[in-house]
Amino acid sequence: MVAGVVLVIVVLILATTRYWLLIPLAYGFWARVLTGPKLSPVGWAAQNVIAPRLGPKKPVAGPPKRFAQSIGAVMSTAALVLALIVGDHAAADAVLLALVPAAGLESIFAYCVGCKIFGLLIRAGLVPDSVCAECADISLRLRAATPTRLQGTSR
User: Fold this and answer.
1) Is residue 97 in some structural domain?
2) 3 state SS for 33-81
3) Distances in whole angstroms, Cα of residue 110 to Cα of each of 3, 58, 117
4) Predicted model pTM
5) 153 or 11, which is more confident?
6) For residue 120, how many C-alpha atoms fall within 13 Å in the half-sphere facing its CB?
7) CA-CA distance, 15 to 9, in Å (whole number)?
8) Residue 152 belongs to a domain
């Protein structure tokens, strides 16, 4: 859901040259990197309003997603600086064009490019295995996705 909103915003910026939209786009990425969905309106709505209506939770390891969000934060911030501070709209558009396939793959096919890069970095030994213990042990994610039983209900 969040990637779908990112895709729409990026395409809107590219189609209309409304570069001020880079401000909420970059904010959203940085908010998700630093706090998860807590301070990101789109992230919060996706997790607490939309996802519960779409079905059961699909456990995802946090570090790869945070890494992917970090890539988005750096790219959207670079586009913001290029467009609004430097005034180089062509360079900003080039950066934004790189976000289109990543956001499109995530929103349409649930394929996280940044997560795949994170996995390659772990396999190459550039990121220690200890950074993502939950990547190696899916049972941690499954336990986290299991709803807690309410007190007083039968077992």
Assistant:
1) yes
2) HHHCCCCCHHHHHHHHHHHHHHCCCCCCCHHHHHHHHHHHHHHHHHHHH
3) 9, 11, 15
4) 0.78
5) 11
6) 7
7) 10
8) no
